[in-house]
Amino acid sequence: MKELKVNLGEHSYPIVITEDFSLISKYARNKNKCVIVADRSVELLHIDELREAVNKHFKEVFVYSVEPGEKSKSLHMTHRLYDFFILHKMCREDVVLSFGGGVIGDLAGFAAATYMRGIELIHVPTSLLAQVDSSIGGKTAVNLNQTKNIIGAFYQPSLVYSNYKVLKTLPKEEVKNAMVEILVHAIIKDAELFRYMEDNLDRILNLEPDIMEVLIAWNCDIKKSVIERDEKDLGERAILNFGHTFGHAIESAMDYKYKHGECVALGIMGACYISEQLGLCQGDLIIRIRRVLNRIGVFNSMQDCDGERVYYFLLHDKKMNGGNINFVLPIQIGEVVKQEIKDFSLIKNAFEKLKNQKW
Fold first, then answer.
1. In this structure, are 190 and 131 located in the same domain?
2. CA-CA distance, 275 to 339, in Å (whole number)?
3. Is 304 annotated as a binding residue?
4. Is 57 labeled as ligand-binding?
5. For residue range 156-194, what is the model confidence (pLDDT) as tens digits?
6. pTM of the full predicted structure?
7. Annotated binding residue 35
């Protein structure tokens, strides 16, 4: 077991990385009622084990199941959660517990942040992507009119509890997609982590237990250190968006046909191509990054992707500034720079290169 602490003053909380659910009652604060907002697929596999742990702590436990997938992250589903909270007389002394991947964490987190102006939130992430990234940092959001994460709030959980044993039931594609987010952390902050991935990629993809606890804790430590310095995404935290500006636009333009990690992989390469045009990075850096992404196996064809739709979603991105688009661009492994792109032809050139690239 490993334990880290996100230090945010009165909003500080622990991250627990372990191999079962038995310690949740040690860390949960409130003991009244708990609503578990669960991904339906995860519920079928793991809800009995989780309920056994939480039933020992809370007076009453209710489960609300949500269909997996990005389309559940909506205002409509948020409204249904509010109705469920009201039905069970949830109050500010109660707890919302998210049980699933990033979609469930975002949805349950947003509902918890806005119901009665905020009730306690616990994240129990069950995907590798959520364990290393989305469960940490307090970003909650839902989508609107296909624009990803456009409505949301910063709302820190009281606990992030990651059981890495549940990862064994993940489809291989989900593990590969999570590896993209781990690669983001390595490129922006940690050259040693990048080399570790190059040397141990097969073992990581096989979810070997001795390596997973180390890897999850390593990534949580990187992300928490950034969040502690910039909780509300006003400065340094923006570097965590590396690959996501293009990635979110592609994800929306493709109507969520591709997985989040697949789109971020394309976004990473798009950012690399913009950086290369600006003379900020060299071709050998791009080759090294592309080689790891190819080994992970997450690239998808862009032949069916409509460039005009991508540009539309880029121009409606929440990181827009005065008509210009903010990108995070690589300089070298472990170092990136925030750049406001005023020349839209750089973006179009990068997209065309993505579209014509044979991975």
1. no
2. 9
3. no
4. no
5. 999 999 999 999 999 999 999 999 999 999 999 999 999
6. 0.90
7. no
